[in-house]
Amino acid sequence: xxxxxxxxxxxxxxxxxxxxxxxxxxxxxxxxxxxxxxxxxxxxxxxxxxxxxxxxxxxxxxxxxxxxxxxxxxxxxxxxxxxxxxxxxxxxxxxxxxxxxxxxxxxxxxxxxxxxxxxxxxxxxxxxxxxxxxxxxxxxxxxxxxxxxxxxxxxxxxxxxxxxxxxxxxxxxxxxxxxxxxxxxxxxxxxxxxxxxxxxxxxxxxxxxxxxxxxxxxxxxxxxxxxxxxxxxxxxxxxxxxxxxxxxxxxxxxxxxxxxxxxxxxxxxxxxxxxxxxxxxxxxxxxxxxxxxxxxxxxxxxxxxxxxxxxxxxxxxxxxxxxxxxxxxxxxxxxxxxxxxxxxxxxxxxxxxxxxxxxxxxxxxxxxxxxxxxxxxxxxxxxxxxxxxxxxxxxxxxxxxxxxxxxxxxxxxxxxxxxxxxxxxxxxxxxxxxxxxxxxxxxxxxxxxxxxxxxxxxxxxxxxxxxxxxxxxxxxxxxxxxxxxxxxxxxxxxxxxxxxxxxxxxxxxxxxxxxxxxxxxxxxxxxxxxxxxxxxxxxxxxxxxxxxxxxxxxxxxxxxxxxxxxxxxxxxxx
Length: 574
Known about the structure:
Number of strands: 35
Number of domains: 3
């Protein structure tokens, strides 16, 4: 989704970032001493992280102002909850830039700037449009960040995107309306052309002029619109009521806008699918997820399988299971390491969690194990050798969580490796790559009701050892299922939930990778010399390149959500 943001916010925030991360890069700016030239110079300097060039493009008064202040309110407005020190200015790009001279005299000009700001810190792109005020100071054109200088437009100034008037205003009230409407367009930062004027009322005291025109926007066909200007005859001339000018798309303009929106949606969907197909084809593997339960059906039993070629199959894995209608919605899902089997859970009766396995078609579903009542599954994970499933089983009754080890073949009850207590709860688990040990997170409640989280290692006989405390920066005061995983060589813990990080087990070194929040079900993908981490954040499937630090969002899935709508019920084994 592309959203509109104020360039004044971007100016202040980016300037602060650029001052703190100036890299001395060069850039190709338009250095001509014109309003458009200095406007382009301003953005080129930000693109190049060149603070000196930036200061050369703004007025002396602005250089003396506290432009580098980066308030918490502004941080939240522009970058959510992430602070200034977390933003890498070298990953900010301006694209699709255009500059239009709206009006100009010897002292002041207005330049309409439109484009997109692409932020690779958060894989986010935002459109913006703003009219800059440019001042001529001692023969040099400079951008005024205050932007409060105005030009009183005349009937001859017009807009430069095209002819202002298709048919010039002819009567006195039309000429006054044309001047007032042009000034209104400047104050509202929009461009127009080919205006036609029609006086719909004139009793020599009051008049109404309807202006039909083409609204000009960046990269979009002009849209037909109309504006209404009301005027009074005062002191021998017509005066417009500028406070109550109205502008609306005409039926033709709205139809054009709707057609553009539809075409844009189709094109974006096609592009997103192409990107997703390319990423999935590159990384390999199948993506599975529980689709959104839009009907809020309490017996929702759907699984979607997105194959490497981009096709999606959806099915009910319980369709051939006895008493399927008695099972509530699926609440856990896990893909085997060979990508051929799906393990999932559903509850029946009085909170009786049941573990199933099915194939990628959903036609061959087997019940593996049913637990007693008043129980629930916290987390499940299939061993890399596909021989066993580790399950954290919670209880609504007295007692804590249990860690169970269950063979993937039906008919074997498995065994309980650990039984916790009320003050020591297991939350999330993952397997070591050798299938001989399990890592789990243990949440412990202190006397002051504060929770701490500890990383535990279990062998298959239930023997445990504590690796260390889970970094508090990643807990966000609580954790969730599939919050972490192990690197393929077993040397690093991939931290999730409150951010994405790497914890090196040998020396405890912690490396922060990105502040994206939340990070759900992170997994390390090693393909030759390429190391990438895939994870989910809300409905977005993200790919982080460990080598160059880029973060992409190749796929958005319509998945059911867990944990207050933050994490999807999904899995991917690339």
